[in-house]
């Protein structure tokens, strides 16, 4: 009974986090904010859903889900950073909205 409740709560929280991330992806105005919405809530939502699923599974199958969680937590921020850097370098990101722009100095040095 307790496992069912814990599983249901984790699955619902994960689904809610994914929904909020998807809404942020649609509603937020610029690329850095959209990347934030695409990465953090989606990763948290997937982790919660997989942990909720792991509660109901046997240990061998749950261990596989833990590996999936680790892979997602490691790769999602890296991919988001690569997309943001590519958008910055190609000029598709509005640089006026950035509070700190460390990459501009580096790009100027590389251009010289």
Outline the fold blueprint.
Layout: H1 2-27, H2 31-56, H3 59-90, H4 102-111
3D architecture notes:
The protein has 112 residues and is mostly helical. The chain has one domain (2-111). It is 84% helix and 0% strand. It contains four helices and no strands. It has helices at residues 2-27, 31-56, 59-90, 102-111. Helix 1 runs antiparallel to helix 2 (31-56) and helix 2 (31-56) runs antiparallel to helix 3 (59-90).
Order of helices and strands: HHHH
Tally of DSSP β-strands = 0
Tell me the count of domains.
1
Pick out the low-confidence regions. none
Number of helices: 4
Major β-sheet annotation: none
Distance between the termini: 67 Å
Query: What would you call the shape?
Result: elongated
Question: What is the gyration radius calculated from CA atoms?
Answer: 18 Å
Q: Classify the beta-strand content into a percent band.
A: under 5%
Q: How much helix, percentage-wise, in residues?
A: over 70%
> By helix and strand content, what is the structural category?
mainly alpha
Mean pLDDT: 88
Brief descriptors of the model:
single chain, mainly alpha, elongated
């Amino acid at each position: 009974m307790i496992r069912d409740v814990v599983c249901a709560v984790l699955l619902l929280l994960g689904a809610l986090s994914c929904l909020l991330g998807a809404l942020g992806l649609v509603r937020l105005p610029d690329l850095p904010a959209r990347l934030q919405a695409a990465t953090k809530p989606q990763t948290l939502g997937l982790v919660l859903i997989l942990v909720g699923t792991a509660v109901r599974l046997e240990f061998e199958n749950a261990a596989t889900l833990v590996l999936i969680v680790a892979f997602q937590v490691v790769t999602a921020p890296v991919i988001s950073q690569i997309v943001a850097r590519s958008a910055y370098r190609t000029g598709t990101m509005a640089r006026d909205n950035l509070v700190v722009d460390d990459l501009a100095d580096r790009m100027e040095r590389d251009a010289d």
